[in-house]
């Protein structure tokens, strides 16, 4: 680390670590927490004042609801239906439960790192600091690209969902795309607190909706719907684990494996709370609270959700895979209610899917811009990207990521749409690479703590059964990455056609891109793997330790419940 205010103290070549800590505390006290954190990260006060830094404007309720609603997206409302049609109810329940356990293990690892040092962008910085700079480069740029393209996909999905009400397309979809882009940019460019308020509202709608759907599903299951049909486990008996590719046990196993892949994509975005940790108020309290609730989120929303759907609708229902239906009409929740004689739900669910898609677009613009900011902090992107507004928004990062949203207009033309879908295919497996990188970063962090004499028992948040949790989780997601494209290899007659080549490309081009990024940085910079004793686990920590957050004491039972929830 370079010098910070040389007339006060130096960190390397003339000062001690305690001198550094005292100097940072002085900056925090005199110039504010944001400048203090920036000075601690960048190494000198002049750079911190030149570029500015992000502000900790996300309140506790913002963080908790970003964590609660972050994984509730179109995958839970729509995508899960395809998994049911292919694999059956028990396979989906098992697939989402197994993947949920792996996601929980990954989040425990990420929670420990982000509580120790909550940084904006976080993940590429943890990988570069604790494991390998080339890994930080690869995961940072891969994540940014994933967010930029997924931003387009969510905007496009929102525009398509609107057509549920505008069946004659009296208004061109391009108009809706433009409106949604303007809204999303507006929520991100001014202050992080505006983004936080928007996500708080979006998440509230999604949480209330999914809880309402779960309750409705239980009523349908037990025969309380207008059709008075007590379904029980009828749909499990007709095909609990369906044959997907092959027959017998092989076919059923292939169905189960396909749900693991589907579930991994549905859980995408669960790590978003750690990306926001760098702008969270009182992160040492709010981030552990959010991370500890991950297990209950997974159980309530996905495991219980997949169970309820499985007992309310047949996996052979043609509406699940019909090409003549779109939007909420293909949602298993809507199909279940329609079959049970509940007519009004499609409009409600479609509105929530629209909200969910807009929320996801909002979140991916935020997350993508912070990944870009994190890569710039690593010195692996142009330095001008570090520039922040007076409200703490890295506006160059937001602007560059937002420019990619214009690619959404490509989805309006037939030939251009093919190119747009091709871009989407490139990011299909990127999520699993992010989770694998988090595990590798944590393994390096765990070794660094031990090598540098930090007792894990003193940590504010300590994840259990480490480093075995990280290794097992890493192994699981590695298997998902390399076997997610098994379908083309089951083609035994007549060789591969266009469909098989497309499936193969979709499954594995993302693998090639990630390793190309990794090898490029490794060859160009020739930086070695991080030695645990030399890993930088301290830069930025002194400023955070110097910040004091007021303790909130509930005055009555209502405030006590609200403080517990938020």
The count of helical stretches stands at 24
Proportion of strand residues: under 5%
How many strand segments? 0
Mean pLDDT: 83
Uncertain segments are 1-19
Radius of gyration, Cα only, in angstroms? 24 Å
In whole angstroms, the N-to-C terminal distance is: 37 Å
GO molecular function, one term: amino acid transmembrane transporter activity
Transmembrane segments: 63-85, 92-110, 143-162, 174-196, 202-224, 294-316, 348-373, 393-413, 419-445, 465-485, 505-524
GO cellular component, one term: membrane
Organism: Karstenula rhodostoma CBS 690.94
Task: Characterise this structure.
This protein has 566 residues and is mainly α. Helix content is 65%, strand content 0%. The chain has helices spanning 17-31, 33-42, 45-51, 60-69, 74-87, 89-116, 123-130, 133-162, 173-189, 192-221, 234-237, 248-266, 272-275, 283-292, 294-312, 332-339, 345-377, 395-403, 414-426, 430-451, 468-483, 498-525, 541-546, 557-565. The two termini are 37 Å apart. Residues 1-19 have low confidence and may be disordered. Residues 1-22 are annotated as: Disordered. One of its GO terms (cellular component) is membrane. One of its GO terms (molecular function) is amino acid transmembrane transporter activity. Residues 62-528 form the Amino acid permease/ SLC12A domain.
